[in-house]
Write a structure and sequence with these properties.
alpha+beta; 60s Ribosomal Protein L30, Chain: A; 2 domains; six-stranded mixed sheet; four-stranded mixed sheet; about 30% helix
Length: about 350
């Protein structure tokens, strides 16, 4: 009996490492020591930049969006999604993302597939100026089917103690800047798949009447990585950025509430931003209520930033200069920690 016969190929694993060495190296920051292949990643933290540096960590995955990728046979975007889910959580407390580790579980190692997946993770890391410091590929032969795959990650960032963003900075009159999301990001796919992807054939048909993309391509639209935009706002607007809500699982309602003090509400005007047609298609075909939609999906806003009113226009300029569509979508008013949609 051999390891290969038991469902694990060391040779395929070694080939995968060789394939991804270049793209992993392309994400290196000056603080990275060494390269891929060691037992652990080394990152020389430059603590002199900070009086009291605080490390910030996040862990996440991309959920059942991977099932769409598997059925379509394309994994070039889900790696970017993973990076977005991680670094955009870090930046919600004002942290600069430093490095990321990934974990991939597969039924059988497919070097070409893993090269495509890790290539997407590396591309996301470059967009976020975050080092892909290391990771793990686990081949679960005999437990997972050969074409099954799951991916998760862990990221670390840094922020100066006392400069953290959060509800403690939010006050009455703050304006809410919404950063646009062209797709579902990595959230709500269990509902979306049940409503839309009723067969593999459906994934190759137009996403909706008049759509230029197939349903599969529409559902694989990669997440915008907002961290560089938010960090630019923080750097250029001198204390005017108060809090950020990354709109992930739980939708607009479940995430914006997380930046509210007990005595304030967030009032969001739904007509102030564009909702991509794919969300309306989910609502139509699944007869999903409007309330359920905003509790599950981002509906076109991937990040909400609470900002000093005098800096709101400048914040919009920063976002647009970084290539992210943005709009004033609401404001903070006295209340009871409730998100009010109008």
């Amino acid at each position: 009996m051999t390891y290969v016969q038991a469902g694990v190929s060391i040779a395929a694993g070694d080939e995968t490492v060789e394939r991804i060495k270049g793209v992993v190296a392309s994400t290196a920051r000056p603080e990275v020591l060494g390269g891929i292949g060691g037992f652990a990643g080394l990152f020389a933290l430059n603590a002199k930049k900070y009086r009291e540096p605080v490390l910030v960590a996040s862990a996440d995955g991309v959920g059942t969006k991977l099932e769409i990728a598997r059925q379509v046979g394309r994994y070039d975007t889900v790696g970017v999604d993973l990076v977005a889910m991680l670094v955009d959580d870090l930046v919600c407390v004002g942290a600069e993302p430093l490095f990321l580790l990934d974990y991939v579980a597969v039924g059988a190692v497919n070097p070409a597939l893993l090269e495509e997946l890790v290539g997407g993770i590396a591309r996301g890391c470059r967009l976020a100026n975050t080092a892909l410091l290391g990771g793990e590929t686990a081949e679960h032969g005999g437990v997972m089917k050969p074409d099954e795959l799951d991916v998760a990650g862990f990221a670390v960032g840094i922020v100066e103690r006392g400069s953290e963003l959060g509800p403690h900075l939010v006050h009455d009159g703050d304006l809410l800047v919404g950063l646009a999301s062209p797709g579902l990001r990595s959230n709500g796919y269990s509902l979306a798949r049940n409503v839309l992807a009723t067969s593999q054939t459906a994934l190759h048909e137009p996403a909706y009447e008049g759509a230029e993309r197939s349903l599969g391509d529409e559902l694989l639209v990669e997440s915008v990585i907002y961290a560089p935009t938010v960090l630019a706002m923080i750097g250029e607007l001198a204390g005017s950025v108060h809090a950020c809500a990354h709109v992930t699982g739980g939708g607009i309602l479940g995430n914006v509430v997380r930046i509210l003090p007990a005595s304030l509400d967030a009032v969001i005007e739904m007509s102030s931003f564009s909702t991509p047609e794919i969300f309306f298609e989910i609502q139509r075909r699944g007869q999903v209520s409007a309330d359920e939609m905003v509790r599950v999906f981002n509906c076109g806003i991937g990040m909400v930033v609470a900002i000093e009113p005098s800096a709101a226009d400048a914040a919009l300029d920063v976002a647009r200069a970084s290539g992210v569509e943005a709009a004033i979508v609401g404001e903070i008013r006295p209340g009871s920690a409730t998100v009010v949609l109008t």
